[in-house]
Design goal:
Mean pLDDT of chain A: 95
Structural class of chain A: alpha/beta
Distance between the termini of chain A: 32 Å
CATH class of the largest domain in chain B: Alpha Beta
Oligomer: heterodimer
Shape of chain A: globular
Radius of gyration of chain A: 20 Å
Shape of chain B: globular
Largest interface: A-B, 49 and 45 residues
Number of helices of chain A: 9
Distance between the termini of chain B: 59 Å
CATH topology of the largest domain in chain B: Rossmann fold
CATH architecture of the largest domain in chain B: 3-Layer(aba) Sandwich
CATH class of the largest domain in chain A: Alpha Beta
Largest sheet of chain B: 7 strands, mixed
Bound molecules: thiamine diphosphate, iron/sulfur cluster, magnesium ion
Radius of gyration of chain B: 22 Å
CATH superfamily of the largest domain in chain B: Thiamin diphosphate (ThDP)-binding fold, Pyr/PP domains
Structural class of chain B: alpha/beta
Low-confidence stretches of chain A: none
Strand order of the largest sheet of chain B: 4-3-5-6-8-7-14
Number of domains of chain A: 2
Helix content of chain B: 25-40%
């Protein structure tokens, strides 16, 4: 669609907020090869947010929104937590309803969109905290995967309940002393990536958001595979700098330290056989498209 | 609106003709059919142009929920699946309704309670989902028997709450319910309640509309809030995310939105009166003695009135059809001549009597009872006895095993 659905009537143009005018002028809805490199030269789909200064969740949000392959036909589902402070500022339709029910909401949503738009692509992407995904919502997270619901689940893993002040969560590391874990957490970090694979996800990635190019790649893969094949899961480390006692500028280093080999956010990936095939097809098409564009550019300059 | 009109007279993929809802329900020929309440739910949904139904087993609604699955297999419902719990099901219903679908679900008793967090969320999100509640016991020890206590918990969720007496009510109200709750100035969920087993598992003659006619489809673009399908501009919903902030503007925003939900419940009044022919049915309101009831307690009350008449005691009847919106004016007017108002109920706390006491002047006139619960039936004799005892008359019946 590109931007036709967000066009402003000429008569009303001057009374629209400037950030909306900017969306119409220079956002990247409909741009085929949109990605993190558009940041800085185009209007982002996220306006200012009220996360803590330097919170890596804000970087993650920016990279993800820049990389969604089809934002003009994507609906996001969030949950209660720090992320819910951001969603009101996001320029794709998004749903907040309750804490932990995000994969249930997304299941109903995806099915409704498939009934209503049988011949069109409508992507659904869930984005929620680790408490929402793994603790209170685990049942619904897994059941959506068992049912092979065709949407992407993204977990912002900050290894604790940030929004309520830093309590223990299932994805917290063993031994970490936190509120409600007064003598240190007594059990291991839940191995959701492995559980996701066993539960039927076709694409599972565990990583940090330190590298925008990597975030772009995994988001594109996850959305495309969910659209065509079945559920996909991304677990992204977005450290809560506030609760682990870091300064605003230390989030990036924290992520780099945690993604070293043998650390808990060393890059891990699982791709099912049908998903591998799809990614190969997409890569081939991409190559073709680039070659054609090059040829066209060559002809134009000749 | 225009879109809805133009579709009237065309056919869906099952060959059913989209029919103006008023004509379908008030003018189309009716065929008497002998069905259980569960089968009647299926027949109503066959004609309801539903996009999504989500199911979960719990007695006494399991049969109805499974029968809708058959409708899906036949192609009458857009999508259908079994969710993992009632909490999840109600969230799945929310997702489907956010995505612009006409949504149907059914639950009962512990299922209603399990899902409870969703209901104020549905109302606050203005999702016109229809949920059938086939009431059953909710407290320990476990009981699957009819008991209407769960309705008390639904009354303050912001949902519309209707209480059907018969399978015929059920058939008509399922279809009418969508017409009321999808009005742009309402756009709220509806809990359509009935007394489990008494309505779901008994057979009754129900007059059905033709199976080849159905409701016009839901038009999500008449919603007062944006449909989450990216078909209209993705305006940022709030310039400043007021949720969870502790400042005056956030309180004011939340407060005004809650007021708006309840104002929408109020606005449903005129539509409900239009479709249900009034929020109550009243008979013999000139008498000293009135029975006010909802659900199958109305049928028992009617029988008790017939028995009392045989003994020369006149008694009037109010059938309360909608609990939300609450028929305050109507009940006041219908009971204004009564010296004694009896409220028979299938639950232990007597929530209907409490609502009525809070509504009418001189509420000492209200006799909260008789109450049965936990699956006990309510023979009309105990209503007769309750009335006679209160009036200082000699009881007509000795109720074995019930004490006195
Ligand atoms: C039913 C329910 N229980 C508890 C809460 C309180 N609550 C709100 S946010 C939150 C923690 C969120 O943690 P997580 O999902 O990890 O997100 P984060 O804030 O860490 O990004 C909790 C417990 C709630 N809103 N609803
Ligand atoms: S509390 Fe933690 S996760 Fe939440 S915004 Fe602040 S730094 Fe980020
Ligand atoms: Mg967290």
């Amino acid at each position: 669609m590109s931007k036709e659905r967000i066009q402003i009537s000429e008569d009303l143009y001057d009374i629209m907020p400037s950030d909306y005018q900017d969306l119409v002028k220079s956002s990247t809805y409909g741009k085929e090869d949109r990605g993190w490199k558009d940041i800085g030269t185009s209007k982002e789909l996220i306006e200012q947010h009220s996360l803590c200064a330097g919170c890596p969740e804000s970087m993650a949000f920016r990279y993800i929104l820049a990389s969604l392959p089809n934002p003009e036909d994507t609906v996001m589902v969030g949950s209660t937590g720090c992320t819910s402070l951001v969603f009101p500022m996001v320029a794709v339709h998004n749903i907040h309803s309750l804490f932990g029910n995000q994969n249930a909401v997304a299941s109903g949503l995806k099915r409704a969109l498939s009934v209503r738009f049988p011949d069109r692509v409508k992507d659904v992407v869930v984005l929620a905290g680790d408490g929402a995904t793994v603790d209170i919502g685990l049942d619904m997270t897994l059941q959506a995967w068992f049912r092979q619901e065709k949407f992407t689940t993204i977990c912002f893993d900050n290894e604790l309940y940030a929004n309520t002040g830093g309590q223990e969560s299932g994805l917290m590391q063993k031994g970490f002393v936190a509120k409600m874990a007064p003598v240190g957490k007594l059990f291991d970090k839940v191995r959701l990536p492995e559980i996701a694979r066993e539960s039927g996800c076709h694409y599972v990635v565990n990583c940090t958001v330190s590298k925008p190019s990597l975030v772009e790649k995994v988001i594109r893969n996850a959305v495309h595979i969910a659209r065509e094949i079945g559920p996909t899961y991304l677990q992204l480390y977005t450290p809560c700098i506030l609760e682990i006692g870091k300064n605003s500028m230390e989030g990036l280093q924290e992520m780099r330290d945690s993604e070293k080999p043998a650390e808990r956010f060393a890059y891990k990936e699982y791709v099912s056989e049908p998903a591998k095939q799809l990614l190969a097809e997409l890569a081939a098409k991409d190559k073709e498209r680039k070659a054609a564009a090059k040829q066209l550019a060559g002809q134009a300059s000749a | 609106m225009a879109e809805t009109k133009s579709i009237i007279g065309t056919q869906n993929k099952k060959g059913q003709t989209y029919t103006d809802a008023w004509k379908l329900l008030n003018e189309a020929p009716r065929t008497p059919s002998f069905f259980t309440g569960s089968e009647v739910i299926k027949e109503a949904i066959r004609r309801a142009s539903c996009d999504v139904m989500i199911a979960y087993p719990i007695t006494p609604q399991s049969e109805a929920a499974a029968l809708i699955g058959e409708l899906f297999a036949e192609g009458y419902v857009g999508d259908y699946f079994r969710g993992e719990s009632e909490f999840a099901v109600m969230s799945q219903c929310a997702g489907a309704a956010f995505g612009g679908a006409r949504v149907f679900t059914t639950t009962a008793g512990p299922g209603t309670m399990r899902a409870m967090e969703n209901f104020p969320m549905w109302a606050g999100s203005r999702l016109p989902i229809q949920m059938i509640v086939t009431c059953r016991g909710i407290n320990s020890p476990l009981s699957i028997q009819p008991d209407t206590l769960e309705i008390a918990y639904l009354l303050n969720t912001g949902m519309l709450v209707w209480h059907a007496e018969t399978a015929q009510d059920f058939f008509d109200w399922i279809l009418k319910g969508y017409m009321v709750s999808e009005e742009p100035d309402v756009h709220l969920p509806l809990a359509l309640c009935c007394d489990g087993f008494f309505v779901t598992h008994t057979k009754d003659v129900v007059n059905l509309t033709p199976a080849d006619m159905c409701l016009p489809p839901y038009d999500p673009y008449r919603s007062p809030v944006p449909c989450m399908d990216m078909e209209c501009p993705p305006v940022r919903m709030m310039r400043d995310p007021f949720v969870m902030k502790s400042n005056y503007i956030s309180y004011a925003t939340h407060a005004s939105w809650q007021q708006e939900i309840w104002a929408a419940v109020e606005r449903s009044r005129k539509h409900s009166i239009h479709w249900l022919n009034g929020l109550i049915d009243a008979e013999n309101t000139d008498t000293d003695i009135m029975i006010v009831a909802s659900g199958t307690a109305v049928s028992q009350g009617r029988e008790a009135i017939r028995m009392l008449e045989d003994e020369g005691v006149r008694c009037g009847l109010v059938k309360v059809k909608t609990l939300r919106p609450w028929p305050e004016e109507e009940i006041r007017e219908a009971t204004k001549n009564a010296k004694h108002i009896f409220v028979p109920e299938f639950n232990v706390t007597g929530w209907l009597a409490k609502e009525i006491k809070a509504t009418i002047p001189n509420h000492h006139r209200v006799h909260a009872g008789p109450h049965v619960c936990g699956g006990m039936t309510m023979p009309p004799e105990i209503i007769v006895n309750e009335i006679k005892t209160a009036l200082g008359m000699k009881k007509s019946f000795v109720m074995a095993g019930r004490g006195s």
